[in-house]
Design a protein that fits this description.
2 copies of one chain form a homodimer. By secondary structure, chain A is α/β, with parallel strands linked by helices. Chain A has 3 domains: 71 residues, Arc Repressor Mutant, subunit A, CATH 1.10.10; 137 residues, ATPase, nucleotide binding domain (Nucleotidyltransferase, domain 5, 2-Layer Sandwich); 165 residues, ATPase, nucleotide binding domain (Nucleotidyltransferase, domain 5), CATH 3.30.420.40. The first copy, chain A, is 40% helix and 20% strand. Chain A contains 14 helices and 16 strands. In chain A, a hairpin with a 4-residue loop joins strand 8 and strand 9. In chain A, helix 2 crosses helix 3, helix 6 packs across helix 13 and helix 10 crosses helix 11. The longest helix of chain A is centred in the C-terminal third of the chain and has 25 residues. At the A-B interface, helix 10 and helix 11 of A face helix 10 and helix 11 of B.
């Protein structure tokens, strides 16, 4: 009896080999086998199929660097041209379109600014289609070759249904975005929360490989979080899990952008910090609801120089975040809480109050072995993460002809 | 080439059939196949092996009840005598030993009271060994036939390492319990949190089958929680996840049994409610740290009769729990929050403040489609859940001879 279903083990092994080549770069067949617990014979067979379909290429064998013996290993690597994907990052008044290749590297990026809050779902889809096609047009290859799009949005989304639930960048709520965009572009569209994109990028790094439970907190205009369990974002039932920004510091406390009071975001986000400082300190003029990077840096500098008002504001921000992290420790008991995002510029000023708050909130048995660390925000990892996520999501399709010849 | 490893699919199918018979009772082969997506031929082959090893028996075929046609179906059921397991529930000043059979039913239970706080780890293991053997002795069969023990403990445990991290019932901390007890008894010992036992029991019920993300909150002497993701307790890195009792209502608030301030437990647990009431209301004399069921029922009755002090106390307890649940919704986004435990006796008195607090804390988009419900506490489900967990954990060993003849 022949089966119409491809061998699931062969498919899983092929996906694992492609993922390893993407995350770790060119590798020899034998090392790919070791890294994935697959026999040499199987790796060789899969590599032959991948080569035949033009998804990988061989690198010329290099002589042994350290005088080793035996035949030098031939490395194989993903062919960058085998797929083209796009990540669109949608945030308040900004749309960034980034083009990635099959290896997960960024090939091109364009950014435009506009009034996002005024968009209807239809106008947003018009805009995204137009921006994606315009970004792809000057690149070699046809736009129709697009393998997939990840739409990374600030706010609450449901990746399963492709619906945007709620975003600070948009006035409309609870609208489908993935399906209409997929229909316009003729390719799969993955709707993701921006924090999940960043966290999935970090989780690929060898430094965080030993942290099966990883909570990544993003400080910036808002406060986001992604909890990765065994490398996968924990989404909850409807996609709105891990919303640390709207967990509570104190009932009836400071007003949050969401409209409720006492949320962690209402103390620790850029807008909350600037709102407190605005009236009290000589800061560059601007919109207190949307402080610029320059304004936030001015404020951090004041705190670091010992200005008592600025210090007090960062103390309060750190205390609220510390209580928020204490709840994350009590409820998720992660291996590691990693703090990143543009708001880490103020971490040194928040740190003493943050650490004191965790200690005040939790007995050592509940802090357990959870660690707290900072990941520097030297570049925006959202789109790199989104490119990785859409490549992972479309690998099975891309590889269908390899697995089932 | 012959393999020494048993066929993983055959093993998984055998485990699935046994689990279905345990959770749903006697079934016909064809229905077992449908329930598990396994072919009739495979179910028949597995059932034959299970019969041959004395793990299942056949029930005499009953004639069709509703005048159906065809040959009546023969049901198969687990043989209760095929395994004997024990669940020990350890709580403040009480040790309960419950004996279960291969079907997961309770066959015998004994309870003793003692000063648990005074025990060292060695004295506790001595006591547990003695109590388990004494409970098994009068039963038919030899104690050495014991298939496994689940030790269900109030507090924080690490099931992976078998270490007790911290329990309100015990003064010592961070000590191994599973390994020394397994050595004494010569059988596998599973160390579990009591809330996880109850939640795993509830998750087996058909009513909660459509809730892949289920948060079960236990109200009582303390406040516990178990978050089940796809039916499995979410433990976190060290086993201390889901500790809603020690998540915060307000910084610097009421004193908790853990020694910190502002924990949900410090407002909503029996001891917290009684502590508030003790000085203000005419209640039966007693230890305010360990109120009895009768005392708690008196207090609920007062609130229901409109006593303003009792009402205010339950209002505050409900408000704190509501904010705690709001954080659970924001961070876990569960399908269902199920409230149970002896403390549900006061739920009606807490409910208006609890619901108002969730609404005050979270915008509707973050409440999402999460539901809130009560599961009546008509019997203690801890040991029934623990028996199910140790049976599931030891099935693979028990079935080894079936899978690999």
């Amino acid at each position: 009896m022949t089966s119409l279903v491809p061998d699931p083990t062969r498919r899983d092994n092929t996906l694992a080999i492609v993922a390893t080549l993407r995350n770790q770069g060119p590798m020899a067949r034998v090392d790919l086998g070791t890294a994935n617990g697959i026999s040499s014979a199987t790796v060789t067979a899969i590599a032959t199929e991948l080569l035949r379909h033009g998804l990988v290429t061989e690198l010329p064998a290099e002589p042994h660097r350290h005088g080793g013996r035996g035949r030098p290993k031939t490395l194989i690597r993903l062919d960058p041209e085998a797929a083209r994907v796009v990540c669109v990052k949608l945030s308040l008044n900004e749309v960034q379109v980034v083009v990635g290749d099959f290896t997960g590297q960024v090939r091109h990026a364009e950014t435009c600014t506009l009034n996002t809050a005024g968009l209807t779902p239809e106008a947003l889809c018009d805009l995204l289609e137009e921006r994606i096609l315009a970004t792809l047009a000057p690149l070699p290859g046809e736009p129709r070759e697009l393998g997939g799009v990840c739409l990374a949005v600030q706010g609450v989304v449901s990746p399963a249904s492709g619906r945007l639930i709620w975003s600070p960048a948009l006035r409309f709520r609870n609208a489908p975005l993935a399906a209409p965009l997929a229909e316009r572009l003729g390719c799969p569209v993955l709707l993701e929360n921006d924090a999940n994109c960043i966290a999935s990028m970090l989780a690929r790094q060898p430094a965080y490989a030993d942290t099966p439970n990883l909570a990544v907190i993003m400080l910036g205009y808002g406060i986001g979080m992604s909890v990765l369990i065994d490398g996968k974002p924990f989404l909850g039932a409807g996609g709105s899990a891990a919303e640390i920004g709207h967990s509570k510091f104190e009932p009836g406390g400071a007003l949050c952008a969401c409209g409720r009071r006492g949320c962690i975001e209402a103390y620790t986000s850029d807008y909350a910090i600037y709102r407190e400082a605005h009236a009290l300190l000589p800061l560059p003029p601007g919109d207190s609801a949307h402080p610029s990077e320059e304004q936030m840096q001015t404020l951090v500098r004041l705190a670091e120089q010992g200005d008592p008002v600025a210090r007090q504001i960062y103390h309060k921000a750190g205390r609220a975040l510390g209580f928020g992290i204490a709840n994350v420790l009590a409820l998720f008991n992660p291996d590691l809480v990693l703090i990143t995002g543009s708001g880490v510029r103020g971490y040194a000023a928040m740190r003493p109050a943050l650490e004191a708050a965790i200690d005040e909130a939790l007995v050592p048995e509940l802090v357990g072995a959870s660690r707290l660390a900072i990941h520097p925000w030297d570049r925006d990892m959202t789109c790199l993460g989104g490119i990785g996520m859409i490549l992972d999501a479309t690998d099975a399709t891309q590889l269908a002809s390899v697995v089932q010849p």
